Amino acid sequence: MNTGTQSLAAEPPGQPSVAVAVRELRKTFPGVVAVDEVSFSVRVGEVFCLLGPNGAGKTTTVECLAGALTPDAGRVEVLGLDPAKDRAQVRELVGYQMQASVLPATLRVEEAAKLFASFYPAPIAIEELLQTVGLKDQRKRAFGKLSGGEKQRLSIALALVGSPRIVVLDELTTGLDPQGRRSVWHLIEQIKARGVTIILVSHYLDEVQRLADRLAIIAAGRTQFVGTPAELRAAAAVRSHATQTLEDAYLTFLDTIDPSNAGRAA
Ligand SMILES: Nc1ncnc2c1ncn2[C@@H]1O[C@H](COP(=O)(O)OP(=O)(O)OP(=O)(O)O)[C@@H](O)[C@H]1O
Question: Which SUPFAM superfamilies match (predicted)?
């Protein structure tokens, strides 16, 4: 197994090069081990993708690093902070893409952005934010009247409004048409170009191929692989000569995971 982890303690003084370090993370809910033993590091400025089957523990993991859940065991560091203890600071540093559908239907785009901006000490100017995500012309439109792609853009805007250094995007392009997906990918590349670290939970291997600098595969609550997309293809090629696309490589890799690890009960 290649978990490619790094030690925060090994970082030189000054600007950290590791944005997020997760070590042997475990999180249970009554009757379920959601995350059993997950470890990975995310470097400052990279796009890092979390992949894995439904129920593998990806959302639980990112909720632990965003400070929304408290781990049962293990260690999580976000720019040197513990999200479970330094919750307020971590919430200023990490933008978490909310499920947009929780917003009231009558709330206008601009009102939602202003509301979320009021939670942060140094928010981005609303006009610049809406321009960046391509919603300037829709700023007066009510949330309930937005298309699926526009809702997705708004949820990204709300994750960015606090000028975060890290953005966590969970299932970024689910439900978008091909054009909408490509334009959201372009948006992610623009955000990356500003130096923001991006953690992306995705089921779409074309998206991962296009955006990811590195990725982790989580299955059965454990990290099964950490590396670049090219390294995943190389690792899968050892197991199957038929491997071609990143999706082929991912599926080949998953096939080799011991199924007795799955379906964990607490
Ligand atoms: N609040 C909760 N209470 C009880 N069980 C939970 C809770 N949140 C998650 N789980 C369970 O923990 C496991 C991991 O869920 P999680 O949402 O982290 O997986 P995921 O990898 O994000 O899945 P998906 O790809 O389907 O979104 C699942 O079995 C899920 O049912």
Answer: P-loop containing nucleoside triphosphate hydrolases (SSF52540)
Task: With respect to residue 157, please indicate whether it lies within any of the assigned structural domains.
Answer: yes
Report which ligand 1 atom has the smallest distance to the Cα of 171.
Answer: 27
Residue 243 lies in a domain: yes
Residues with CB under 6 A from ligand 1: 29, 32, 34, 52, 54-60
Q: Is residue 9 part of a domain?
A: no
Alpha helices (H) in 118-245, listed in sequence order: 126-132, 148-160, 178-193, 205-211, 229-239
Q: How many domains does the chain have?
A: 1
| Structure-block tokens of residue 92 | 């200023």
Percent share of the chain, pLDDT over 90: 60
CA of 257 to the centre of ligand 1 (A): 19
In a domain, 214, yes or no: yes
Task: State the pLDDT confidence band at 220, using cuts at 50, 70 and 90.
Answer: confident
- What CATH number should be reported for the domain holding residue 173? 3.40.50.300
Instruction: Give the pLDDT score at 100.
Output: 54
Q: In this predicted complex, what is the ipTM? A: 0.98
Q: Are 91 and 121 within 8 A, CB to CB? A: no
